[in-house]
Specification:
With 490 residues, the chain is α/β, with parallel strands linked by helices. The protein is built from 15 helices and 16 strands.
Length: 490
């Protein structure tokens, strides 16, 4: 049996052409009158308790919510229950969960077999002691056994922290300073990586609150363009060299611009040629693409691997950095540590707490035992096939594809735009167009929500092993209810 969630990797050239065409066409989105009806008949009537508490929260919490994923049009909903493939809000409305907490819940939300283990730990040890716990070892060993390139693993508090640690380790290991990241990729919100995010070529323009000089050592290269990457590596070689090249292995923003196999293998080759460490950000792909991650699927051996939410099974303190021993030695903990090499400044009191490690260990074991990644991927294949049929039925310009259980339903192609600084007169038009399209993403996302479908920004969907074939017809019917009300905007 296929050990990965991906049964057939998408034709990258074909998808890219379709996305190229999408952003040249007029915007198709939920019609204003239909959106108005959804708001008045669903959100204002059936979500009254959510609306009330969010209005109160806005007086105390900036924007009313604590996490970017919780922002939804016309107002964030308050969710009180998560189980399997479903969510329930404060007003008792139920939804299919295609957000899956941003990707980590491959088993589905709140699996009882993991919950029972967590409760058992809380009854004995408690969530944290500040000292070593046996499940720190068990989790690290499980991850190392699953991914050959991860000879050692250190748990941290988040994916953002793990990306920060990767850069510090890479600089110590290579004695070089420059970092190259793929344009459009998201590696957390640290100062130096808030560069070229979401839309390739944006450089510092999305990094509000970060002084421009912070990006002295950070650069970006265009996805799927090995010539551009080598050009940047050559340039940096004249200025002290590149410590590491960071990529999301299925493409920026979890594959919104999918990468070809040839590109990924080419990046690995260039890193070796120029003496740079290859960093795979597998915050989303690790244990969702397969137990050996995207690196196992593509047959690549990165020097460092960034982990996120899934290593704690969806519980808090979810992040970590893994890699080869000769590199990971720079993450040695303790005052004296081992050897005479310098150590990266990395901390985190709540990192690797007993609760997170236990939850992560049993989650990974359960994913492997039940072949959860494959199940989630097979459902995703059927979901995308159904969505493509609906797109064709209603003659819409939308683009649907999936990389295993990571699904994309691009209606406006906001993140397929890029900024070309050699043609500065085009930049205002790109910024204006992406702003308009982002607004329509929010609108169609609201329509999905009113039909009982929770998505990520109205354009990305994650499936889990909790989805079963008998749900598919109902799910597609709800999407069709939205597509019936889509038309050309403006």
């Amino acid at each position: 049996m296929n050990q990965f969630a991906i049964t057939e990797y998408p034709d990258v050239e074909k998808v890219t052409r379709e996305l190229d065409e999408l952003i040249t066409k007029p915007i198709y989105s939920i019609k204003p009158e239909a959106l108005s009806t959804y708001i008045s008949e669903y959100f204002d009537i059936k979500c009254k308790m959510s609306k009330e508490i969010i209005q109160k929260a806005q007086e105390i919490i900036p924007g009313g919510v604590q996490h970017n994923l919780a922002f939804n049009h016309p107002f964030p909903l308050v969710f009180t229950k998560a189980e399997g493939a479903f969510l329930e809000d404060l007003d008792g409305n139920t939804y299919y969960d295609f957000l899956q907490a941003g990707g980590p819940t491959v088993l589905g939300s709140n699996p009882p077999e993991i919950r029972e283990k967590v409760i058992g730990l809380l009854n004995t040890c408690g969530p944290s002691t500040g000292l070593f716990h046996e499940y720190e070892y068990k989790l690290a060993k499980k991850i190392s056994d699953s991914m050959p390139a991860v000879e050692m693993f250190r748990m941290l508090g988040s994916g953002t922290e793990s990306c920060m640690a990767a850069i510090r380790v890479a600089r110590l290991a290579t004695k070089k300073k420059h970092v190259l990241k793929m344009g459009g990729a998201y590696h957390g919100w640290s100062d130096q990586l808030a560069y070229g995010i979401r839309v390739p070529g944006t450089k510092h323009t999305q990094a509000n609150g970060v002084p421009k000089h912070i990006f002295k050592w950070t650069g970006e290269f265009f996805p799927n363009d090995l010539k551009d990457l080598e050009k940047k590596l050559k340039r940096n070689q004249l200025r002290g060299g590149t410590a590491c090249v960071m990529i999301e292995p299925v493409g920026p923003e979890s594959g919104t611009r999918p990468l070809s196999r040839e590109f990924i293998k080419g990046v690995e080759k260039l890193c070796k040629q120029y003496g740079s460490l290859l960093v795979f950000d597998e915050v989303v792909t690790a244990f969702r693409i397969g137990m050996s991650g995207a690196q196992g699927y593509f047959g690549v051996s990165p020097d460092l691997t960034v982990f996120g939410k899934v290593v704690a099974g969806g519980y808090p303190s979810a992040g970590g950095l893994g890699g080869k021993k000769e590199v990971m030695k720079y993450l040695t903990a303790g005052i004296s540590g081992g050897g005479k090499h310098k150590k990266a400044l990395v901390g985190g009191t709540m990192a690797a707490n007993p609760l997170s490690c236990l939850a992560g260990y049993y989650t990974l074991c359960r994913i492997e035992e039940t072949q959860a990644t494959q199940k989630a991927g097979l459902f995703a294949d059927k979901l995308i096939a159904g969505l493509k049929e609906l797109i064709k039925k209603y003659d819409l310009p939308f683009v649907a594809y999936n990389q295993g259980s990571i699904c994309h339903l691009e209606t406006v192609g906001t993140m397929h735009f890029h900024i070309n600084w050699s043609k500065p007169w085009t930049i205002p038009k790109v910024l204006e167009e992406t702003s308009k399209r982002k607004k329509e993403m929010e609108h169609i996302g609201a329509a999905y929500m009113a039909e009982g479908l929770v998505t990520l920004a109205g354009s990305r969907l994650y499936t889990s092993a909790a989805y079963t074939d008998d749900m598919l017809e109902d799910v597609l019917k709800r999407f069709e209810n939205v597509f019936k009300h889509v038309g050309k905007i403006g």
